[in-house]
Each structure stands twice: as C-alpha cells, then as structure tokens.
C-alpha cells in the first residue's frame, strides 16, 4: 500500500487525508473546516523567527536521550517555544495540467505527495487549495544560492501572530522550496527532509540513515527511520509556541 500511495499526485492527496468516507467535495470541505483562513497576520522581528534558541529564551536545548533512540538534542526551539502544532495545514503549488511542462510538474507533485503521506502517518495535517489557510507553503523552485552554495531544497521559518475565527495565536509559518531538477527518488527524499523541518524538526541527525540527516548518503532516504519517528514524537510532547499579552496587544496587519 505504501508504494501505491507514493504514486498518487498531490491533487489526490486531499482524499487520502480526509478522515470521513469520501464523497465528492468532502475532502476539500474537511480541509476548509480544519484550516480557516487568516483574518489578519503580523510578523515578529526576524531575531525571533530563525528556528533556533534565542537569547533570553526560557526553552532549553534538550539533553540527549539516554538510550540514543532519537536526536532531540540536535533540535533548536525558537525564543517563543517549540514551533510545533497539533494540526498542520499545507498548501502545495499547483502545476501545469497540460502542455510540455505537465509531465515534469506531475513528477514533482508525485514526489511531494509521497513525502507528505509519510509525515501524515505521524501528524494530523490537511492539504488546502488556498495558501491563506496554510502554515506550510511548498513551492516548485530551486532555492537561491546561500553563501555561494547551491541546494535542492530549503525550509525557511518565520513566526506570525495570526487571527482566525476571531482568535489570536502565534503560528509557525514555513516556506519550503523543492527543486524540480532532480530524479524522482531524490525529489521525494528532498521533500521528506524539508517537510521534517517545516513540521518542527529544526536540526539535523548525525546518522545518514535518518531522513533528517545533515549529510545525505549515496542512496536517497525516502522513508522515515525509527529515530525520525521517535524524535517527532518527543517534539510533539513539548510546549508549543506561546502568545504573550504584549504580542496580542499590537496592531494586526491584513
């Protein structure tokens, strides 16, 4: 079943993530209900949005797991807490449906869909058609050079004060770039890794057998290891982002 799921395009992923029996439109309706649009949003200063422990943070870098079953000690929180959520809303850039680019865009969508499915086994998430409803945006593009170095994928975190249904909350918002110029298995491995960052794993494993390894091995890692799973489970048990009264009192931006 896993291999069959990896072949599904992103457009079909909505049906996979629908918790109710599928009828036409039910997956999209479920995603809309779980992921209301933002009524307003405001960015925090960049220093608080780097996905790393900030000065004066009350969140401590964790000690290593005594049994070595995960790599929690290699993760870094923000100065406002761990950028995790109980439910994520994800938008994937749509591709061409016809013409010369359709074939290549479909291959990219298939790779991203397979990676999303792997994380969806561990995390509640919805794929939405409106980026205003999402905390994670996945783009079909090669990241720009950073320090003169090229890469096939990148995840960039910022923290936003967002109002949905009249309620303010501090949310992680992540822009994920996945280069389409790779072999399908490499695109899937890149998407799996970068989505791991997006879902809160802001750090790298030192084991090349893990999807979140800092340095990938010769064979693309297309499945989450037990250490990847254990680290995410540990993360989901940590305190989430906290909205302070001072942040809530500032004027929102549309």
Number of helices: 7
Major pleated sheet: 6 strands, mixed
The helical percent reads 25-40%
User: What's the overall average pLDDT, rounded?
Assistant: 83
Radius of gyration, rounded?
A: 18 Å
Unreliable parts: 1-24, 47-56
Judging by the overall fold, what is the CATH architecture? 3-Layer(aba) Sandwich
Please provide the ordered H/E string of secondary-structure elements.
HHHEEHEEEEHHH
Strand content: 15-25%
According to CATH, the homologous superfamily is Collagenase (Catalytic Domain)
User: What is CATH's topology name?
Assistant: Collagenase (Catalytic Domain)
Amino-to-carboxy terminus distance: 43 Å
Number of domains: 1
Strand order of the largest sheet: 1-5-6-4-2-3
CATH class designation: Alpha Beta
Structural class: alpha/beta
User: What is the number of beta strands?
Assistant: 6
Rough outline: globular
Structure description:
By secondary structure, the chain is α/β, with parallel strands linked by helices. The protein has a single domain, classed as Collagenase (Catalytic Domain). It is 28% helix and 17% strand. It is globular and about 50 Å long.
